[in-house]
Design brief:
The chain contains two helices and 13 strands, in the order αβββββββββββββα. The chain has 216 residues and is of the alpha+beta class.
Length: 216
């Protein structure tokens, strides 16, 4: 009887998992810098490495997946360092891999911060720093619920008004300044649909009935 009971419970569990709603990715935060001056600095060290950074940049959070009203004033800090040589394709698109960290905070409030490993790509006066799992992306926040920050996660930071225009110097993206805006997304924890709860109830009821019959 114990074996049959365990088997019935296993089937009930499979039914619950199979009926669970698969969550889609959600935009958890979007922001833009305040003002129209360049706030990001790219620095080529002349030896094949470029850093992209900005500290305490005044930004406005225009959307956030939390119970707080927008717009929200905050400050962005970004630091990224190239991890390989830049490459250029036939269309002139320049790509280079980077790793780094970011934070969007105001005082003791961490709206969103994290680390990333992926690439910067672009040409002319525009670059995009993007990262998405399975590449390493971590998020932390004391405003957005932890259940909203699950995998997969993605980052897209737009670097506009890149000046001078993007080029390659000593195997790495050349020095530049730019403005910045960005969007972050993640996948909320999947929640069982009502049908899952019905299946669970039906499965456990069937197990109980069968157990009582075998005792009688």
């Amino acid at each position: 009887m114990k074996k049959k009971l365990a088997l019935a419970l296993a089937f009930a569990s499979l039914g619950i998992l199979g009926a669970a709603k698969s969550a889609d990715a959600t935009v958890i935060l979007s922001f833009g810098q305040n003002g129209n001056v360049n706030t990001i600095t790219g620095t080529n060290n002349g030896a094949g490495v470029t850093t992209i950074a900005g500290s305490n940049i005044a930004v406005t959070i225009t959307q956030i997946d939390a119970g707080v009203a927008t717009p929200i004033a905050a400050f962005l800090t970004l630091s990224a360092t190239s991890t390989g040589a830049a490459s250029t394709d036939g269309s002139g698109q320049i790509t280079q891999h980077y790793m780094g960290s970011f934070s969007i905070v105001n005082g003791g409030t961490n709206y969103l911060s994290g680390t990333f490993t992926d690439f910067v790509a672009g040409q002319g006066t525009g670059l995009t720093l993007s990262s998405a799992t399975p590449d390493a992306v971590t998020f932390t926040s004391n405003v957005i619920a932890a259940s909203e920050l699950n995998l997969p996660r993605a980052i897209a930071l737009g670097l506009a008004n890149v000046s001078p225009a993007v080029s390659v110097v000593a195997g790495s993206i050349s020095s530049f300044t730019s403005s910045i805006s960005g969007t972050f997304s993640a996948t909320p924890t999947a929640v069982p649909e009502p049908i899952s709860l019905l299946l669970m109830g039906a499965g456990l009821a069937a197990v109980g009935i069968r157990a009582r019959r075998q005792k009688a």
